[in-house]
Fold this protein.
Amino acid sequence: MLDPRAIKQDPEPFRYNLSRRGMDTSPIDEFLKLDERRKETQVESEELRNVRNTASKEIGILKREGKDIAEQSAEVKKIGDRIKELEAELSGIEARTSEILACIPNLPHPDVPDGLDEGHNVELRSFGEKKYFSFTPVPHWELGESLGIIDQQGAVKISGTRFVVMKGKGAALERALINFMLDLHTNEHGYTEILPPYLANKETLFATGQLPKFEEDLFKTTGDPPFYLIPTAEVPVTNLYRDEIIDGELLPVRFAGYSACFRSEAGAAGRDTRGLTRVHQFNKVELISFTRPEESYNELERMTSCAEKVLQLLEIPYRVMLICIGDLGFSAAKKYDLEYWAPGQERWVEVSSLSNCTDFQARRGKIRFRPETNAKPALVHTLNGSGLAVGRTLAAVLENYQREDGSVEIPRALRPYMNGTEEITPA
């Protein structure tokens, strides 16, 4: 959530950046009008309270003198009724103001390029060479079926479309990737491992920015109140510090959270309907950091390099993209995507998004730190990024390590996690 005081002091940067995102600027105008009315309401209410207090004192004097107080009492009642009207109006203003603020995205960093969609993202660097084959490479969903390790039809029977069943060496490969990523991030990169709940309450989803704006993208239970299936471990792990003050000496705090992730893909109808790229349930290792404000952009670079290391060790070609403002996440001020080369599809596929959310989530979740002993608490900066999306990484392995005979080589970095298995051969 943005700082309402900053909007009131200088609304132009907020209007400008909503325009850059291709969004209507009217929420800023409505917020400012409501704030003016709020001030008018508070002033009138306070003035009427003073008048009522004075009148009440006069009524007390008249009453003691045995005089008729009917007229004065009627006037006091009218004042009281008006105060109640103003209080109701003020309550409505505050509720609507909160709704507006909850749906305005974060301010972008100056480095974020213009552009309304992913076609305007900027490639910053790449690793490795695209793999070319002496045969025509096939997409991972065809490989998975021929190898007997991905069963989409079985998943359709069990759950419906956009689900998969991993079988045999495919399930082992997925588990190997999870353990490989967690070991790398905890042992070499200094993250603390977290295994969070997969169900969260609405306060948790509000703090990280999924609610109220993106409720259609979430699965939820039918209870009252409902629980929401988490779309990423970012959600529960960021909320570990909700409504808390972190000791500034502990910052930065870094967590690596493994979880299953659940997404309705409401806005992705017709996209990536085959394979592991866009499914309702998938596994992911998520990196989350809490930092001092002045350190957060350096932390974003560090986090990105940690995620890149996974692809480097797997020797999968990838590129780093700086995301344009039209493709920028709701809570993010700056975001990088890692995209692997998928030879079976002849395209780049996102495998990680890494974002600096500055104090946007921290303000929503009241996550603060004390810069030094006895200092006034300040908002932390929060960051998150995939380290990596496991299913998409598995797809990257299948497509880049496929052989002409239909087998797939296991990357050397993963063999210790698969009991020395060097290849997966057709069923």
About this structure: Residues 107 and 177 are 35 Å apart (CA to CA). The radius of gyration is 28 Å. The chain has a mean pLDDT of 95. The domain at 4-102 is CATH 1.10.287.40 (Helix Hairpins).
